[in-house]
Amino acid sequence: MNTTETRQELVDYLRRVRAALADLPADELAEVMEDVEPHLAEVLDETGDLTGRLGTPEDYAAELRAAGGYPPPASADSARGKSRLAARYFVWSTALLTFTCLVVGGMLAQPRHQEKYLWLFFTLLAAAPGLVWVFSGYLRRADVESLPEYRFARARGVAAAGLPSPRVVEFIRSLRPGWWVARVVLVLALMLVGATEGVVVAVVVVAFLTWAGPRSSTDRRLLPLVVAGNALLATATLTVVLYASDRSSQRPYEYVSPGLNYQGKYLDNVYAVDADGKPIPEFYLYDHEGMPLNVVRNSCESSSRAFDNRFPQPQVEYRGGQCVELSGLPFVPLPPNATLRPSTTSVIPSTSATTTPVSPSPSVSLSPSVTTTPVSSAPATTTTG
């Protein structure tokens, strides 16, 4: 672009700005235009495009009017009132969206409370009209910046940003490449804790921030969404860190030996008998929640490592270099109710015998139903024919 064209663009831009501010007092208008002209010339020399950098002359004039505290033109009072209402709706709806993202991010690692996703959806739906107004150009930046609540929030934000020392700010900026790694780690952590819906939300937010984050420095319309997304990921990261530290402190790692234990003693096998002491050839064990107590099943087949809850297990022995599976009880059980009623069956003799001295006594018949009774003498009875 040659000097003549550049000069003509500057003249046209200044003319339209002056026309948009024509309702101001003459001396104030002259003062404003005196300050504006060198600034516009400098911007034009740097960029070569005033409209691309500052917007239309009317938009720039509106920004000057808002910055100087001048009232809107009398003919535009009605339209300006609507724009002010739309700007206020946009500011408060995006603030609510950011707050909701903070809350939902803190609950992202919890599989419960599924209603949090409804909160996020409806809040985003409520903020949609304001976002549409901004991206369509109906709501201008000057309309938003003219709100007292926006100026108040921005002043507090600038004051808070100035608290850290420049060295701290520079250090935080140097960590910016690592933020993307932290976001990927967050997604993996949510997968480990089993928060499936949280993983989906985090992936969508990370993908959006990857695209919109770098562009928000030049397109300020994306800034509210970028702030809300970062708020969600920040509280989600904090929650995952606290959750992991709580799990590690309350549930220390300890080794639990496999199989069944009773009073600290490992059980090789389990047997069951009925009320009469007869072995139950097959039964299955469950815990109080109905879960099977599966253990490794003994077998001579080295390649077979079956897990089941069927008992008793076969006893594996090696005889002559060969593996043998034995069934049955390795002991003689005592009937559980032997002391409650007399037994009518004979007792199995013990394998160990004891010697008891025997005193002389009359002989006793082997039949348990016959007893010896002394017979007294009686006169003989004679039968006569």
Describe the structure.
With 385 residues, the protein is mostly helical. The protein has twelve helices and eight strands. The protein folds into three domains: 1-71, no CATH class; 76-250, no CATH class; 266-326, no CATH class. The strands form four sheets. The protein has a two-stranded antiparallel sheet with strand order 1-2. Strands 3-6 form a two-stranded antiparallel sheet. The chain has a two-stranded antiparallel ribbon with strand order 4-5. Strand 7 and strand 8 form a beta hairpin. The N and C termini lie far apart (171 Å). Residues 340-385 have low confidence and may be disordered. The chain crosses the membrane at residues 89-111, 117-139, 180-210, 222-244. Pfam families: HAAS (PF22564). This is Proline-rich protein.
What's the short version?
With 385 residues, the protein is mainly α. Helix content is 52%, strand content 6%. Helix 1 runs antiparallel to helix 2 (26-47), helix 5 packs antiparallel against helix 6 (115-136) and helix 10 (176-192) runs antiparallel to helix 11 (196-215).
